[in-house]
# Entry
Amino acid sequence: MDILHIDASVREDSRTQRLSQYFLDGFSHEKVNIKTLKLAQECIPPLTKESLEHRTLLSEQGNFDEPIFHYANDYANADMIVICAPYWDLSFPATLKTYIEAINVNGLVFKYDDRGNAIGLCNAKRLVYITTAGGKIISDDYGFGYIEAIAKKFHGIKDVDYIKAEELDIIGADIHKILEKAENKIDKLIEKINKDE
# Structure
């Protein structure tokens, strides 16, 4: 199984990263290949008029071997996607949105049918979204909700799981207990995934 781990955290001591690593450790055996993409180190530029037109032309030609598509190819071919993204400003770091723009390629990650409906082309049947927040996550609709919608409605990924640990920076918070609770949810998810395989 090929797992693509998309890490949108920026801190060395990231609690989000800690939880995603805990999840990945549950799959650390010889049958699993994990590729980690640290978005803060990738410097993926946002799309411009010129880069979008260039990408569209290559896409229409079916020329998906060009370097511009390497993120999209990795995403489309992975067996499972794991996204590690802290909860920032009701959503997630901008690097993750820029990454989504880079991989959301018509003809590679999804296509449109003759009625204009998106049909997912991704190999993955599961995406796991892991986040942490210093305060309370006001709504799951923004950060996680966006990722869930695009994964299901565009990429064809049927199972989207959500692990969160919130209120970590509230005065008096038992950080260890909050993270341990999230790890217990991860244990149950790993057990479920292993049963489904």
Notes: Helices lie at 15-25, 39-42, 49-60, 70-77, 94-103, 143-153, 175-196. The longest strand covers residues 126-132.
